[in-house]
Amino acid sequence: MEVKEVSEGNPEGELVFHYKRGSFREREDQATRDMATGKTVIRHGLFKSLVSTRGNRLMFFTLVAVAALCFVVGFLDSGNNKNSLSGVDFSLQAFSFNDEVYVSLEMKDTEKNPPLENVEFEIEFKMINEQGGIQDSLRVNHQYEKKSENKPSFVYQKFSDYDILRAECYVFAKDGSIALKADIKRN
């Protein structure tokens, strides 16, 4: 059997490409043509690339707005468990452990306007359940003694935990009253 050499395509055996330069560019949109020809300038830098297109600007400013909103809400929400009255700073904390809720009210002199003498406080603790009702309540009197080294004093209370969500504390003095609220921290 004889094998003949057969050339495919071109009689000289070379492979020839027919390429019409630029014909495919007719079907592209103008932005792609400008980028390929070098008419558009690529923006360098992080901020310039974040705001280079309309979609990027919208996403960037939405992200900034959400971050600012989270910061403001966190700043405003964090102050419910701290307040001052009669030259004394109060801080309320509550946590649950072994079916009991432990509530701690910390008191210390304010830095700007400390009390000049001992102050008598009437303190009312209220435990709020899931329905928003008062589960348990307790009223105590406390004599706050001014200390020279500004060490805090505490009032501790323990309550039975029957689905308590929040602890509220109302402090009454001769010159006013304040309300403190703290969510129960669970282990």
Task: Outline the structure in words.
- Helix content is 20%, strand content 39%.
- By secondary structure, the protein is an alpha+beta fold.
- It has 2 domains: 24-77, no CATH class; 81-183, Intracellular proteinase inhibitor BsuPI (Immunoglobulin-like, Sandwich).
- The strands form 2 sheets. Strands 1-2-3-6 form a 4-stranded antiparallel sheet, with no helix packed on it. Strands 5-4-7-8 form a 4-stranded antiparallel sheet, with no helix packed on it.
- The protein starts with 29 loop residues before the first helix and ends with a strand.
- The mean pLDDT is 80.
Mean pLDDT: 80
The secondary-structure element order is: HHHEEEEEEEE
Based on CA atoms alone, the radius of gyration comes out at 37 Å
Could you say which overall geometry the principal axes of the C-alpha atoms support?
elongated
**Overall CATH class of the largest domain:** Mainly Beta
Could you tell me the CATH topology label of the largest domain.
Immunoglobulin-like
Q: How many individual domains?
A: 2
Distance linking N and C termini: 90 Å
Biggest sheet details: 4 strands, antiparallel
Spans of at least 5 consecutive residues whose pLDDT stays below 50 are none
Helix content: 10-25%
Content-based structural category: alpha+beta
Q: What percent strand?
A: 35-45%
Spatial strand sequence of the major β-sheet: 1-2-3-6
